[in-house]
Fold:
Amino acid sequence: MVISNIGAEIEYNLIDSQGYLINNAPRVLADPRNDGSLVKEGTNSQIEIVSDPADTVHELGQNIRKKIILLEDICQDHGSFPIPASEFGAGKGELRGMSDPLKNRGPIYLDLFGKELFEELRAYSGTHLHISQTPDKQTEQYNLLQALDNLSYVLTSSSPISYQGINSINCHRVNSFRNNVFKESPLHGQLQPYINSLTDIDKQNTLRWQQWLDDLTKKNSPSAAEYLNIFKPENTGYAPIRKRDNIGPTGTFEVRSFDTNSLDITLAVFALYKGVHDKAMKNNTPIEIATQNNTYNFTEDKITLPNYQTLLQFENEGIQNGLKSDLVKDYITHLLPYAEAGLPPEDRLYLAPLKEMLLTRDNPADEIMNFMREQGYQGHQFTPQQTAQTNLYMRERHLQSLN
Structure:
């Protein structure tokens, strides 16, 4: 029995043969072989793959793999190579379409955040997972996905090095979004409390949209007029979860906080999400929120979600230390067998990388830094030449995952 339908959007950067970013995405996208599944992103070094909807992780993986091979073939003829990584400092993605605000949000973001924060925002690549909405269960769905928030980046972090070439934490991408770029506008990018009903989402969407419009108006920004044409309450900001009613027959919940990563890791975390979600929805399991901190339980009879304060603790420890955090590691260890029981046999195989991660306690960000140390690169500030080697490493991880 199919419980949820899933789909994905995966962002890649393009590099040259030496590992430096190359801004030829417009040429790649304009290639006549592009069937529409390769789309533009924020910079001219980025391309996004949009999957078809799928009933299983296995089906989704086969679909994404075909689209990656298409991207590989086109890129090869244009002298570039896709990598699942954000910017590490080896070159810089050129902002796309800044001269035409009607086709790009960049000028509006620049007016909202200023140059420094906008530079930080545009440097990161990520992955979005869509899970179909279950009619009459959307509030429970949303809160369940909210409770899984830290899994999305702790298990996929590929950003231990910032766009400035700095290593200091395990996940720069989520830290940038939640603690830097949206520090002064938390509703637009930070994890919010659980909801009591779908009305809470509608209220947040409207307030989020109005706050930015008010900000532009106060600044007498010429972007205010364009803002009204481009932004709607349902597509404003970088909320970790977005309710998308216009996708598919039932609409989807779009989980937006995954780092971009090699396909094996991406599918592994998708399987974890889908397994937990489908088991809870199939069994119509009662879901409550813990009253005490650091308390949770996922069983056949009842699900107790960690409370909001615990989610924020997960977030802080996950950003800083990844799976080296005992609190985060224990939570994922608890969820894994529950997720496995919610998957069909062909999808359970995709969890294997996560089981290995829990044993080594090294996530992809740790593996990147292990590689850098093996190259003899010490300290916390790396040169463009050094981070180009990181891009080449991510290229190899990407190719290995296709096999």
